[in-house]
Amino acid sequence: MNRNEMLSRMKDTNRSWDLIIIGGGATGLGCAIEAASRGYETLLLEQDDFSKGTSSRSTKLIHGGIRYLQQGNVSLVLEALKERGLLRQNAPHLVHNLPFIVPSYDWWKGPFYGVGLKLYDMLAGKHGFGRSKFLSRETIQKRIPTLETNGLRGGVIYYDGQFDDARLAINMAQTAAEQSATLVNYVRVEGLIKENDIIHGVLARDMESNAEFEIKGRGVINATGVFTDSVLEMDKVGSGNLIYPSQGVHLVLDVSFLPGENAIMVPHTTDGRVLFATPWRDKVIVGTTDTPVTEISMEPRPLEEEIEFLLSHASRYLTNDPTSSDVLSIFAGLRPLVKDKEVGNSSSVSRDHTIYISSSGLVTVAGGKWTTYRKMAEDTIDQAAMIAQLPENESVSRNLHIHGYHRHAEKFGDLAFYGSDAPAIQDLVYQKPDLEKQLHPKSKTIAGEVVWATRYEMARTVEDFLARRTRTLLLDARTSIEMATPVAEIMAAELKKDDAWKNAQVKNYQKLAEGYLLS
Q1: Percent of all residues in the chain with a pLDDT value above 90, rounded to a whole number
Q2: In 12-143, where does DSSP find H-type helix?
């Protein structure tokens, strides 16, 4: 997957696009896979990097959604559990089972949660990840030695899925490309082309060269997440009133706060939220918040009250109380919830997806969640193909392996999350042993990964590599800052950039990464 090749395809005026997809997050990439695998000529345009926004800032869970059962949304849970199973089937190198323990500090809550989780198991059916069961206080202490034991009566264990969101997004882009889709990052859609008030293309700008393009297509899909309303405004002034953005914040701690393979789930905190503490990549993620916001940003920042909420609640359930100085990184993401006038707070807003078709033919998909991206895409392409008068080709995505598919990727050690690409990276290192060098004593990332990401994964900036091709920014922001210079040097050589570019990259990255630090 090479950007120059993709850009050449995009510029080819002889090409006729069936569908143009705006947005390169989970939803847009899912739509690209769905459309291309059905045989449609597909173009996806992303204004920044793939999964730059919400899709790289999740809780890293592929799950049915326990709390949606509490809300009575059984249909969403049923759909999500089915899609959870398909994701583990199609991307086993990135999706795996994770045991969650729900500790009980009140005698009556244990049975209550147990009944709910038995229903969760039943709904999962053949797509289940493991059966839930009650655990004694002693068993929980053995599984999670750092869990607060004062008042602990026992609990319940259940199983859900964990994944790497940004890595899955990159693999989805590669999957779409293998199905013949054209995908270009750093190309911003700035307008819509209409003929007789019907959309027939987009006006786009290459953010690297500043060149402008008119691109014609039979159908256009708005899959821009929290930026949905801005595209709706391009279509019709005053129509951008669909999204109710909510911010979720996560903090990252050292693994010593939660050693082992078990996660903690608190289904009902003092203010009604769900709290997770999950082991991930030799670190611990604690989250999340659910705060309504009015400002849409590519780099949302956590609020003081969100930080305090996470630290104080982590202290309630962990014997070693974390402080701000223990936080290795803190990140925020915006959820593109669809407005519901009957709901008073964002934590109660449905995570169902919505497909809206405007009078101009613009197809907009909004809402939903990472776990259900494939079903969202299937429903969207069904509608878009009809609007664009394309042949009714059946969906094949249910059994389509995601790029990198490997049943036993763990055999590749530190390169496991590359799946079937890992041997190619090993070959790079074999041919040039210098590429085996670690970029920092606190990181397992090697120089060869920078070369791979730049050549084959369309990484264009130091941020692309440290934030999304690897997850160093989220795992340890300070360490990532110290890695910026060697990464920039390797990328500059690969992209044939000068010292001015390299210096600007390091400066820009350091400024960005400082926003992920608390002290």
Answers
A1: 81
A2: 26-37, 66-70, 74-90, 109-124, 137-143
Query: Are the C-beta atoms of 287 and 310 separated by less than 8 Å?
Result: yes
Q: What is the pLDDT of residue 346?
A: 39
Q: Give the CA distances from residue 441 to residues 413, 437, 480, in Å, rounded to whole numbers and listed in that order.
A: 17, 10, 11
Write 170-173 long-range contacts (CB < 8 A, 24+): 170/50, 170/51, 170/457, 170/468, 170/469, 171/91, 171/94, 171/402, 171/403, 171/404, 171/419, 172/26, 172/29, 172/30, 172/32, 172/33, 172/402, 172/403, 173/1, 173/24, 173/29, 173/32, 173/50, 173/458
Residue 72 has pLDDT above 90, yes or no: no
CA angle, residues 68, 70, 74, in degrees to nearest 5:
50
Q: What angle do CA 161, 163, 165 make, to 5 degrees?
A: 135
Whether the CB-CB separation of 171 and 105 falls below 8 Å is answered with no
Residues 243/80, Cβ–Cβ less than 8 Å:
no
Is residue 346 within 8 A of residue 357, CB to CB? The reply is no
The number of beta carbons lying within 10 Å of the beta carbon of residue 86 is 19
Residue 340 has pLDDT above 80, yes or no: no
For residue 71, the model assigns a pLDDT of: 66
Listed range (271-275, 341-345, 441-445, 499-503) with the worst mean pLDDT: 341-345
Q: What is the rounded CA–CA span in Å between residue 338 and residue 306?
A: 22
Q: DSSP string of 445-468?
A: EEHHHHHHHHHHS---SHHIIIII
Both tokens of residue 321?
């109380």
Domains located in the chain, CATH noted: 3-54+166-242+348-399 (3.50.50.60), 95-161+244-344 (3.30.9.10), 409-514 (1.10.8.870)
